[in-house]
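Before surveying the methods themselves, we first show a specimen of the format, giving the amino acid sequence and backbone structure tokens:

:::
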Amino acid sequence: MIKGNVVCIRNVKNEDLDLLYTLSNDFIDAGFYMPISLSSWTSFISEFKLNGFWVDFTGKLIIENFDGDIVGEAGFFKSTHYINGREVYYRIFSGNRGKGYASDALNLLIKLFFESSSFSRLQAVTVNGNSESEHILIKNGFKKEGIMRSARHFRGELVDLNLFSIIRKDWLSQ
């Protein structure tokens, strides 16, 4: 467990699975910019049994407030095979937004990433117009690199994605 100012991030445990599956697949109030995709219970459990949702800086972590409530999920994934790094994602579940949880969790993820891996780059993308998430990224040291035009099908149309990154050199100089 890694403790921040208002949240902790940690690996997923067996006792988290039912609630995490329910929260992760609740798209009634996922937030406007959250892409909708469902996973089956079988594949969710299979992946957990295979690797606990975590291997080689790839996977899913829990965001937990100091009362021990699961307030979100976050993690890293490999976006392309030729980049020396990972892509980060974070999601705060409905009813827990606006409390600084996402920014604190992202700060912890960045610290975890650069202090315990040899990767040189951490990147994130936002759907064009997601100013809240972009603000959180910039506040935590990410720089906007550009726009990926018509990069994702989202809510029935092709949308642009904004690409942000923080590299080890910049993180060390903060």
In short: The chain has five helices and nine strands. The mean pLDDT is 92.
